[in-house]
Amino acid sequence: MISDFSKIKIFGSYISKDYSEELLRLLHLYMDISASEAASRLDMHIKTVQDFFDAMFDVGLLDKKEVYESKRPYYRYTLKSNWINLEYDISKLLPDEKQINNGDIFIREKKNANVRYTTARSKLFFSTVTIWTGRGREAEEKKVSLTTAQGKFLFNLPFPNAEFASVPSIMKKAEVPEEHKSEILDIVNLLIEYKIIEIKE
Amino acid sequence: MIYILKLKPDRDITGLLPIIFCLLIPALVGALMGPVAGFSTMAGIIFIYSFFCIFAVYRTKSIGYIVLTCYMFSMFLYILSLDINIYSGRLIYQTPESKFFLFTSFFLALWMLYLTFTKKNKWRGREILELAACKVEEGINTYTDRPRPVNKMEFQREEVEYFAKFLVKSLIIMPYYEQERILFVPVRNGHEYPYLFGSNINYWNKTWVAFDFDGNISAHISKNDYLDYKKNLEFDPLCEELGKLFVEFFEYFRQGEEVRIIDKLNEVKVGYFS
């Protein structure tokens, strides 16, 4: 079973190749096969096949065995199983526990933040937030489209001179359901990173 | 209550431009082409103004604009009915019709004067900004171009619509109707022309208070209006006070005490023309 995200990425990039289906079929048909045998069988370049087999070995789909015949050593590859099992818990991609607990911090908009909020037409929430970083020729604009929950949250973010408020209290004021907390924390972390939101010391 | 005025003095002459224009152009035409052409130009300008006034009446239903429109038409008819003879010793002869229109114009001018002194034909945006700022302390670097949620209350859509009609009739705000809310934009005297005659005004960037039909009330103060205060004020309380002021007005309106709204605006001692 492939459950490591870096291996899933490698697997995904190779399995999407046009020739992957043919190579897997050969691996299934042969007890073991070398890259040169497979390349000659499918009329492909040996390097292409070698890379594919190595990648499948790295992700754990194949076994390889070094063999010596009357020439220099080479590898023969064997399919470990007829099944490809991918399993991954996407929640592992969330920030670490420390960042998740940012719900406990007290925040407000930072003074003189170089930012512009665009309000959704006819609604009391923001649709985008545009952040400017750098000065002069170095200046860059980053435009972030917000989800409705994020837009409502930022609409209710305390002003620069207002009292700091906790993330849950702002969410409550903005009537944002608890299940949106992770996306709220994501935008809060981004805006803290860009110095748009300040945290109570 | 005595209010300390926090806005800079109004030295804008935009409000006087139509009058200056109405006098200057005919005077120039008269000097170049003779008195008949001058009077005709004045009549033409007044006639055009009267149509603008009709549009203002349509937008506001205000008694001030109704009287002004009548005055404009009366003046236009008065000038038309004058007998101007450049070849006689006396330039202008009053005809019976002109005497009648002179009387109606004089009567309407007196009425307008009364409306001016009772501030019934004055846009009240300045008073709104003063009332919002009266309890707010000084604060540096507090401005943000974000609207602020102020309050949540229960009301019917029709109530807000009637409230908007009352406020515009009293020349306090210009309402902008959106699908799910109404924005009240306070209009200052002398700055009303774009709101009355502009077809595509970017009201979103102005100072406003919004009542949405879910009961949310939010306020926004434009950078220009904020900089018009003599000192930088704490922005968060300023927005909150602006929103609360409209909530207070709305409560008066619901209780049938509209006159209290006008009384409160009259408490702020700003000039008749600012």
Structure description:
The complex is a heterodimer of chains A (201) and B (274). In chain A, the strands form 3 sheets. Chain A has a 3-stranded antiparallel sheet. In chain A, strands 8-4-9 form a 3-stranded antiparallel sheet. The two termini of chain A are 46 Å apart. With 201 residues, chain A is an alpha+beta fold. The model of chain A has no long low-confidence stretch (mean pLDDT 86). In chain A, α1 runs antiparallel to α4 and α3 crosses α4. With 274 residues, chain B is α+β, with helices and mostly antiparallel strands. Chain B has 10 helices and 7 strands. Chain B has a 5-stranded antiparallel sheet with strand order 3-7-6-5-4. A two-stranded antiparallel sheet of chain B has the order 1-2. In chain B, α3 runs antiparallel to α4 and α5 packs across α9. The two termini of chain B are 20 Å apart. At the A-B interface, β5 of A face α9 of B.
Q: Which features does this protein show?
A:
heterodimer; A: 201 residues; alpha+beta; 3-stranded antiparallel β-sheet; 8 helices; B: 274 residues; 5-stranded antiparallel β-sheet; two-stranded antiparallel ribbon; 10 helices; elongated
What is the fold's blueprint, element by element?
The complex is a heterodimer of chains A (201) and B (274).
Chain A (H helix, E strand, L loop, with lengths): L4 H11 L4 H10 L3 E2 H8 L3 H13 L3 E6 L6 E6 L17 H4 L5 E4 L5 E5 L6 E8 L6 E6 L2 H8 L9 E2 H7 L7 H13 L3 E3 L2
Antiparallel strand pairs in A: 1-3, 2-3, 4-8, 4-9, 5-6, 6-7
Chain B lengths: L16 H17 L1 H26 L2 H19 L1 E2 L7 E2 L2 H22 L7 H9 L14 E5 L4 H13 L3 E5 L3 E6 L6 H5 L10 E5 L3 E5 L2 H5 L7 H20 L3 H10 L7
Antiparallel strand pairs in B: 1-2, 3-7, 4-5, 5-6, 6-7
Number of H/I helices of chain A: 8
Order of helices and strands of chain B: HHHEEHHEHEEHEEHHH
Instruction: Give me the secondary-structure category of chain A.
Output: alpha+beta
Largest β sheet strand count, sense and barrel closure of chain B: 5 strands, antiparallel
Strand content of chain B: 5-15%
- Write down the oligomeric state: heterodimer
Largest interface: A-B, 21 and 23 residues
- Contiguous low-pLDDT stretches of chain B (5 residues minimum) are none
